[in-house]
Structure formats: structure tokens, C-alpha cells
Write a structure and sequence with these properties.
CATH topology: Pantoate--beta-alanine Ligase, Chain: A,domain 2
Number of strands: 6
Number of helices: 2
Shape: rod-shaped
CATH superfamily: GSPII I/J protein-like
Radius of gyration: 32 Å
Strand order of the largest sheet: 3-4-5-6
CATH architecture: 2-Layer Sandwich
Helix content: 25-40%
Largest sheet: 4 strands, antiparallel
Strand content: 25-35%
Oligomer: single chain
Number of domains: 1
Length: about 150
């Protein structure tokens, strides 16, 4: 004898068998599992994008600091650590020659602390002719101003 679940409105023995109910529950469970998997994948993607954005800001800051430094940077490599958005990052910076005399390339790679792959590589440059040597205020002092 097959167990029946539920009764029709006429009081008969019609309804779903236990097997039909179990099959329906399995289908619903598979659907919920697929939705949960999609949500987890989306959350992972969002975290990865956030991490890449923060790493890009770290690299941009390194390039900016190198451009704004008073002394023209020497060729070579350097490494360091930075914190951005509550996350720790490692950066590696290379100062390289370019085909243009007086212009250097600044290459910065950034990865999350303890990670093996670099998240971001940014390139920038700096020209030696753009660096003001000596007292920068002296430029303003030599400006000719007409009296009011």
C-alpha cells in the first residue's frame, strides 16, 4: 500500500504519494543550492574587486610619492608594505631607464600580504627636467609683479 499525503476537497484518497513529495523536495533543495552557490560566487567576486581596487590605490600612491619626492630617484628596485582600507599589502617598485633622456619609468607591483600573485602592476614616469632643484620658493620670488 502506498501512503498518500493530503486529501482532495471531495474527501477522496487522491493526493501526492510520499515519493512524489520527496522528489519535489530534492528538486527544491537543488534549486536552493544553485542559488546559494551563485551568491557565494558573487560575494567572492566582489571581495576580489575590492582587493584589486585597494591594491591599485597603493600602487598609485607609490608612483605619486616617487614623482613628488624632492630628490630624483636612483635606478633600481625597492620593496615595502602599506595598509589601505584595513588590508595589508606588499609592494615592489622598479625605477628603470626609458628611451627618452631625463625620463624614468616607475613600475609598481602590489599584492595582498602573504599572497603569491601580484594583483596590480602600474606604470608611471618622471622627468628630470620637471624637478625643481634648490629652493622652490625662489621661482616665485623672481616673478615680476606690476604694482596695483
Amino acid at each position: 500500500m502506498i501512503a498518500r499525503v493530503g486529501l482532495t476537497r471531495f474527501g477522496g484518497a487522491r493526493g501526492f504519494t510520499l515519493i512524489e513529495v520527496l522528489v519535489a523536495l530534492v528538486i527544491v533543495a537543488l534549486g536552493i543550492a544553485a542559488v546559494m552557490s551563485a551568491l557565494v560566487s558573487s560575494a567572492d567576486g566582489t571581495n576580489r574587486l575590492r582587493e584589486r581596487s585597494l591594491a591599485e590605490w597603493v600602487a598609485a600612491n607609490r608612483i605619486l610619492e616617487t614623482r613628488l619626492a624632492k630628490d630624483f630617484p636612483a635606478l633600481g628596485s625597492s620593496e615595502g608594505k602599506a595598509t589601505m582600507g584595513g588590508r595589508d599589502f606588499q609592494w615592489r617598485q622598479r625605477i628603470e631607464r626609458t628611451a627618452i633622456d631625463g625620463v624614468i619609468a616607475i613600475v609598481v607591483e602590489v599584492r595582498a600580504e602573504g599572497a603569491s600573485d601580484w594583483l596590480v602592476t602600474l606604470r608611471g614616469g618622471r622627468g628630470e627636467n620637471l624637478v625643481v632643484s634648490g629652493d622652490a620658493d625662489a621661482l616665485w620670488d623672481t616673478a615680476v609683479r606690476t604694482p596695483p
